[in-house]
Protein backbone atom coordinates (compact mmCIF):
# COMPACT_ATOMS: atom_id res chain seq x y z
CA UNK A 1 0.00 0.00 0.00
CA UNK A 2 1.47 3.34 -1.11
CA UNK A 3 1.71 6.14 1.42
CA UNK A 4 2.49 8.74 -1.25
CA UNK A 5 -0.16 11.29 -2.22
CA UNK A 6 -2.12 10.51 -5.39
CA UNK A 7 -0.11 11.46 -8.50
CA UNK A 8 -2.81 13.85 -9.68
CA UNK A 9 -4.31 16.22 -7.12
CA UNK A 10 -7.97 16.97 -7.74
CA UNK A 11 -9.40 20.44 -8.27
CA UNK A 12 -12.99 21.59 -8.67
CA UNK A 13 -13.50 24.91 -10.48
CA UNK A 14 -16.89 26.55 -10.86
CA UNK A 15 -17.49 28.96 -13.71
CA UNK A 16 -14.77 27.01 -15.47
CA UNK A 17 -15.93 27.32 -19.06
CA UNK A 18 -14.72 30.89 -19.57
CA UNK A 19 -12.83 33.83 -18.09
CA UNK A 20 -10.96 33.35 -14.82
CA UNK A 21 -12.23 29.79 -14.38
CA UNK A 22 -10.93 28.68 -17.77
CA UNK A 23 -7.57 30.37 -17.21
CA UNK A 24 -7.23 28.62 -13.85
CA UNK A 25 -8.20 25.29 -15.42
CA UNK A 26 -5.41 25.64 -17.97
CA UNK A 27 -2.96 26.66 -15.25
CA UNK A 28 -3.76 23.67 -13.04
CA UNK A 29 -3.58 21.25 -15.94
CA UNK A 30 0.03 22.39 -16.34
CA UNK A 31 0.47 21.59 -12.64
CA UNK A 32 -0.67 18.00 -13.35
CA UNK A 33 -4.07 18.38 -11.66
CA UNK A 34 -7.16 16.42 -12.50
CA UNK A 35 -9.64 19.26 -12.98
CA UNK A 36 -13.41 19.02 -12.70
CA UNK A 37 -14.81 21.92 -14.68
CA UNK A 38 -18.25 23.01 -13.45
CA UNK A 39 -20.36 25.48 -15.38
CA UNK A 40 -24.03 26.03 -16.14
CA UNK A 41 -23.21 26.66 -19.80
CA UNK A 42 -23.55 23.35 -21.71
CA UNK A 43 -20.94 24.46 -24.25
CA UNK A 44 -18.41 23.94 -21.47
CA UNK A 45 -18.22 20.31 -22.54
CA UNK A 46 -16.81 21.36 -25.91
CA UNK A 47 -14.45 23.78 -24.19
CA UNK A 48 -13.14 21.05 -21.90
CA UNK A 49 -12.58 18.59 -24.75
CA UNK A 50 -10.73 21.22 -26.79
CA UNK A 51 -8.11 21.99 -24.14
CA UNK A 52 -4.61 20.87 -25.03
CA UNK A 53 -2.95 18.69 -22.39
CA UNK A 54 0.62 19.70 -21.53
CA UNK A 55 1.90 16.12 -21.27
CA UNK A 56 0.62 12.66 -22.29
CA UNK A 57 0.24 11.77 -18.59
CA UNK A 58 -1.88 14.80 -17.71
CA UNK A 59 -5.46 13.68 -17.03
CA UNK A 60 -8.07 15.28 -19.26
CA UNK A 61 -10.44 17.67 -17.49
CA UNK A 62 -13.96 16.49 -16.79
CA UNK A 63 -16.85 18.85 -17.48
CA UNK A 64 -19.83 18.68 -15.13
CA UNK A 65 -22.77 20.89 -16.02
CA UNK A 66 -23.74 22.45 -12.69
CA UNK A 67 -26.17 25.05 -11.46
CA UNK A 68 -24.30 26.14 -8.36
CA UNK A 69 -27.43 27.78 -6.95
CA UNK A 70 -28.65 24.20 -6.34
CA UNK A 71 -27.09 22.57 -3.28
CA UNK A 72 -27.97 19.13 -4.66
CA UNK A 73 -26.13 19.93 -7.91
CA UNK A 74 -23.03 21.05 -6.04
CA UNK A 75 -23.15 17.94 -3.85
CA UNK A 76 -23.29 15.74 -6.96
CA UNK A 77 -20.29 17.65 -8.36
CA UNK A 78 -18.23 17.02 -5.24
CA UNK A 79 -19.21 13.35 -5.12
CA UNK A 80 -18.15 12.88 -8.71
CA UNK A 81 -14.80 14.57 -8.10
CA UNK A 82 -14.16 12.51 -4.96
CA UNK A 83 -14.73 9.30 -6.90
CA UNK A 84 -11.67 10.01 -9.07
CA UNK A 85 -9.05 9.09 -6.45
CA UNK A 86 -10.75 9.53 -3.06
CA UNK A 87 -9.48 13.05 -2.40
CA UNK A 88 -10.33 16.66 -3.20
CA UNK A 89 -7.43 19.09 -2.89
CA UNK A 90 -8.52 22.45 -4.35
CA UNK A 91 -11.88 24.14 -4.74
CA UNK A 92 -12.07 27.38 -6.72
CA UNK A 93 -15.46 28.96 -6.02
CA UNK A 94 -15.33 31.20 -9.05
CA UNK A 95 -18.75 31.22 -10.73
CA UNK A 96 -20.68 34.46 -10.54
CA UNK A 97 -23.18 36.70 -12.28
CA UNK A 98 -23.81 40.43 -12.36
CA UNK A 99 -27.03 42.13 -11.27
CA UNK A 100 -30.03 40.61 -13.01
CA UNK A 101 -31.97 43.88 -12.90
CA UNK A 102 -31.80 47.45 -11.72
CA UNK A 103 -33.39 47.16 -8.27
CA UNK A 104 -34.48 50.80 -8.48
CA UNK A 105 -35.92 50.67 -11.99
CA UNK A 106 -39.36 52.21 -12.48
CA UNK A 107 -42.14 49.77 -11.74
CA UNK A 108 -44.50 48.83 -14.56
CA UNK A 109 -46.90 46.79 -12.44
CA UNK A 110 -50.48 47.96 -13.07
CA UNK A 111 -51.96 49.91 -10.18
CA UNK A 112 -55.42 51.20 -9.37
CA UNK A 113 -57.03 53.70 -7.05
CA UNK A 114 -57.05 51.26 -4.14
CA UNK A 115 -53.40 50.25 -4.58
CA UNK A 116 -51.59 53.26 -6.07
CA UNK A 117 -48.16 51.81 -5.30
CA UNK A 118 -47.44 48.25 -6.38
CA UNK A 119 -43.94 46.79 -6.28
CA UNK A 120 -42.61 43.48 -7.50
CA UNK A 121 -40.18 41.65 -5.19
CA UNK A 122 -36.53 42.10 -6.18
CA UNK A 123 -34.73 39.52 -8.26
CA UNK A 124 -32.21 38.04 -5.81
CA UNK A 125 -30.56 35.61 -8.24
CA UNK A 126 -27.30 37.56 -7.96
CA UNK A 127 -27.18 36.98 -4.21
CA UNK A 128 -28.17 33.33 -4.68
CA UNK A 129 -25.31 32.65 -7.10
CA UNK A 130 -22.61 35.03 -5.88
CA UNK A 131 -23.04 34.60 -2.11
CA UNK A 132 -25.41 31.83 -1.00
CA UNK A 133 -23.99 29.29 -3.47
CA UNK A 134 -20.46 30.00 -2.23
CA UNK A 135 -21.59 29.34 1.35
CA UNK A 136 -23.02 26.03 0.14
CA UNK A 137 -19.77 25.26 -1.64
CA UNK A 138 -17.79 26.09 1.50
CA UNK A 139 -19.89 23.73 3.58
CA UNK A 140 -19.38 20.97 1.02
CA UNK A 141 -15.66 21.58 0.64
CA UNK A 142 -15.08 21.45 4.40
CA UNK A 143 -16.95 18.14 4.64
CA UNK A 144 -15.11 16.60 1.70
CA UNK A 145 -11.73 17.97 2.84
CA UNK A 146 -12.24 16.40 6.25
CA UNK A 147 -13.12 13.11 4.60
CA UNK A 148 -10.01 13.33 2.41
CA UNK A 149 -7.85 14.03 5.46
CA UNK A 150 -9.26 11.01 7.28
CA UNK A 151 -8.49 8.87 4.22
CA UNK A 152 -4.90 10.15 4.27
CA UNK A 153 -4.54 9.07 7.89
CA UNK A 154 -5.98 5.63 7.15
CA UNK A 155 -3.49 5.18 4.29
CA UNK A 156 -0.55 6.46 6.32
CA UNK A 157 -0.07 9.54 4.16
CA UNK A 158 1.44 12.70 5.63
CA UNK A 159 -1.02 15.52 6.37
CA UNK A 160 -1.48 18.17 3.69
CA UNK A 161 -3.40 21.39 3.34
CA UNK A 162 -6.49 21.52 1.18
CA UNK A 163 -7.38 24.91 -0.26
CA UNK A 164 -10.50 26.81 -1.22
CA UNK A 165 -10.06 30.05 -3.12
CA UNK A 166 -13.11 32.28 -3.46
CA UNK A 167 -13.36 34.71 -6.34
CA UNK A 168 -14.63 37.88 -4.67
CA UNK A 169 -13.93 41.22 -6.34
CA UNK A 170 -12.33 44.60 -5.83
CA UNK A 171 -15.89 45.91 -5.44
CA UNK A 172 -16.05 43.96 -2.19
CA UNK A 173 -13.89 46.77 -0.82
CA UNK A 174 -15.54 49.75 -2.51
CA UNK A 175 -18.99 51.03 -3.53
CA UNK A 176 -20.23 49.95 -6.96
CA UNK A 177 -23.28 51.93 -8.01
CA UNK A 178 -24.17 50.08 -11.21
CA UNK A 179 -24.34 46.61 -9.58
CA UNK A 180 -25.27 47.03 -5.89
CA UNK A 181 -26.33 43.41 -5.30
CA UNK A 182 -23.13 42.10 -6.89
CA UNK A 183 -21.24 44.55 -4.69
CA UNK A 184 -23.10 43.39 -1.58
CA UNK A 185 -22.37 39.75 -2.40
CA UNK A 186 -18.66 40.42 -2.85
CA UNK A 187 -18.51 42.35 0.43
CA UNK A 188 -20.11 39.28 2.00
CA UNK A 189 -17.52 36.94 0.51
CA UNK A 190 -14.70 38.98 2.00
CA UNK A 191 -16.34 38.88 5.42
CA UNK A 192 -16.92 35.14 5.04
CA UNK A 193 -13.31 34.48 4.08
CA UNK A 194 -11.87 36.50 6.95
CA UNK A 195 -14.26 34.92 9.44
CA UNK A 196 -13.76 31.24 8.60
CA UNK A 197 -10.12 31.33 7.48
CA UNK A 198 -8.34 31.22 10.86
CA UNK A 199 -10.72 28.63 12.30
CA UNK A 200 -10.47 26.20 9.39
CA UNK A 201 -6.70 26.65 9.15
CA UNK A 202 -6.45 24.77 12.43
CA UNK A 203 -7.81 21.74 10.56
CA UNK A 204 -5.45 22.07 7.61
CA UNK A 205 -8.10 23.72 5.43
CA UNK A 206 -7.06 27.01 3.83
CA UNK A 207 -9.81 29.42 2.76
CA UNK A 208 -8.73 32.61 1.00
CA UNK A 209 -10.17 35.04 -1.52
CA UNK A 210 -8.90 36.96 -4.49
CA UNK A 211 -10.29 40.35 -5.42
CA UNK A 212 -9.77 40.98 -9.13
CA UNK A 213 -10.09 44.42 -10.61
CA UNK A 214 -11.49 44.65 -14.14
CA UNK A 215 -10.46 41.43 -15.89
CA UNK A 216 -11.74 40.39 -19.35
CA UNK A 217 -14.52 37.88 -18.60
CA UNK A 218 -17.93 37.01 -19.96
CA UNK A 219 -19.65 39.16 -17.32
CA UNK A 220 -18.76 42.38 -19.12
CA UNK A 221 -21.42 43.88 -21.44
CA UNK A 222 -20.41 44.20 -25.13
CA UNK A 223 -17.82 46.87 -25.73
CA UNK A 224 -16.91 47.40 -22.07
CA UNK A 225 -13.67 45.38 -22.14
CA UNK A 226 -12.41 47.36 -25.15
CA UNK A 227 -13.32 50.67 -23.52
CA UNK A 228 -11.57 49.84 -20.24
CA UNK A 229 -8.52 48.52 -22.07
CA UNK A 230 -8.29 51.67 -24.17
CA UNK A 231 -8.15 53.73 -20.97
CA UNK A 232 -5.37 51.56 -19.51
CA UNK A 233 -7.35 50.00 -16.67
CA UNK A 234 -7.58 46.36 -17.78
CA UNK A 235 -6.00 43.87 -15.37
CA UNK A 236 -4.36 40.96 -17.25
CA UNK A 237 -5.37 37.41 -16.44
CA UNK A 238 -1.75 36.67 -15.56
CA UNK A 239 -2.09 38.85 -12.45
CA UNK A 240 -5.06 36.80 -11.25
CA UNK A 241 -3.19 33.54 -11.84
CA UNK A 242 -0.25 34.87 -9.82
CA UNK A 243 -2.66 35.52 -6.97
CA UNK A 244 -3.97 31.96 -7.21
CA UNK A 245 -0.42 30.66 -7.09
CA UNK A 246 0.35 32.71 -4.01
CA UNK A 247 -2.79 31.54 -2.22
CA UNK A 248 -2.49 27.87 -3.15
CA UNK A 249 1.18 27.57 -2.23
CA UNK A 250 1.74 30.20 0.44
CA UNK A 251 0.11 28.62 3.50
CA UNK A 252 -2.29 31.57 3.84
CA UNK A 253 -5.60 31.54 5.72
CA UNK A 254 -8.36 34.12 5.64
CA UNK A 255 -6.38 36.33 3.26
CA UNK A 256 -7.92 38.66 0.68
CA UNK A 257 -5.70 39.61 -2.25
CA UNK A 258 -6.61 42.50 -4.51
CA UNK A 259 -5.41 42.07 -8.11
CA UNK A 260 -4.98 45.35 -9.97
CA UNK A 261 -3.09 45.79 -13.23
CA UNK A 262 0.24 44.04 -12.62
CA UNK A 263 0.18 44.19 -8.81
CA UNK A 264 -1.10 42.11 -5.89
CA UNK A 265 -2.22 43.87 -2.71
CA UNK A 266 -2.74 41.84 0.46
CA UNK A 267 -5.68 43.67 1.99
CA UNK A 268 -6.26 43.77 5.73
CA UNK A 269 -9.51 44.45 7.61
CA UNK A 270 -10.24 48.03 8.63
CA UNK A 271 -8.57 49.08 11.88
CA UNK A 272 -10.49 49.23 15.15
CA UNK A 273 -11.60 52.70 16.30
CA UNK A 274 -11.18 51.82 19.99
CA UNK A 275 -10.17 49.07 22.41
CA UNK A 276 -13.76 47.98 22.99
CA UNK A 277 -14.25 47.11 19.32
CA UNK A 278 -11.00 45.19 19.25
CA UNK A 279 -11.95 43.25 22.39
CA UNK A 280 -15.39 42.35 21.03
CA UNK A 281 -13.87 40.94 17.86
CA UNK A 282 -10.60 39.39 19.05
CA UNK A 283 -10.71 38.61 22.77
CA UNK A 284 -14.35 37.76 23.34
CA UNK A 285 -14.31 34.43 21.51
CA UNK A 286 -15.11 32.47 24.66
CA UNK A 287 -18.04 34.77 25.45
CA UNK A 288 -19.51 34.61 21.95
CA UNK A 289 -18.78 30.90 21.56
CA UNK A 290 -20.34 29.90 24.86
CA UNK A 291 -23.48 31.93 24.15
CA UNK A 292 -23.95 30.49 20.68
CA UNK A 293 -23.27 26.91 21.72
CA UNK A 294 -26.19 27.20 24.11
CA UNK A 295 -28.39 28.95 21.55
CA UNK A 296 -27.75 26.39 18.84
CA UNK A 297 -28.28 23.51 21.23
CA UNK A 298 -31.69 25.00 22.00
CA UNK A 299 -32.66 25.31 18.35
CA UNK A 300 -31.44 28.79 17.45
CA UNK A 301 -34.28 31.01 18.70
CA UNK A 302 -32.03 32.84 21.14
CA UNK A 303 -29.61 33.71 18.36
CA UNK A 304 -32.31 35.56 16.48
CA UNK A 305 -33.18 37.47 19.63
CA UNK A 306 -29.54 38.33 20.33
CA UNK A 307 -28.82 39.61 16.83
CA UNK A 308 -32.09 41.45 16.37
CA UNK A 309 -33.66 39.02 13.89
CA UNK A 310 -37.33 38.26 13.41
CA UNK A 311 -38.17 41.84 12.49
CA UNK A 312 -36.36 43.56 15.35
CA UNK A 313 -33.67 46.11 14.67
CA UNK A 314 -30.13 44.74 14.56
Structure description:
The chain has helices at residues 19-29, 44-50, 71-85, 125-154, 180-201, 224-230, 237-249, 275-283, 285-297, 301-306; strands spanning 10-14, 34-39, 62-65, 90-93, 162-167, 205-212, 256-260, 263-267. Strand 2 (34-39), helix 2 (44-50) and strand 3 form a beta-alpha-beta unit. The chain is built from 10 helices and 8 strands. The chain is 42% helix and 14% strand. The chain is an alpha/beta fold and 314 residues long. It has an 8-stranded mixed sheet, sandwiched between helices.
Number of continuous helical runs? 10
Strand proportion, as a percent range, falls in 5-15%
Q: Tell me about the biggest sheet?
A: 8 strands, mixed
Shape category = globular
Which structural class matches the secondary elements?
Answer: alpha/beta
Helix content: 40-55%
Distance between the termini: 56 Å
Strand order of the largest sheet: 3-2-1-4-5-6-7-8
Q: Which series of helices and strands comes N to C?
A: EHEHEHEHEHEHHEEHHH
Integer average pLDDT: 88
Number of DSSP-assigned strands: 8
User: Which segments are poorly predicted (pLDDT under 50) over 5 or more consecutive residues?
Assistant: 305-314
Amino acid sequence: MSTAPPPHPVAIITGAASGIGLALTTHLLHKNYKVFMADINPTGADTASSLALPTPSTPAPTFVRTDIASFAAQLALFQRALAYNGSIDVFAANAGIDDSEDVFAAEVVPADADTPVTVRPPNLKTLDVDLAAVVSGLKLFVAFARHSARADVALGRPPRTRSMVITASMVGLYPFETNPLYCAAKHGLIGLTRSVGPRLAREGIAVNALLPAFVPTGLAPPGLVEAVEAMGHLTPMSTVIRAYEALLEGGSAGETVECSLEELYWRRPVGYPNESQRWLNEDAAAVWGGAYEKVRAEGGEGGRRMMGGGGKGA
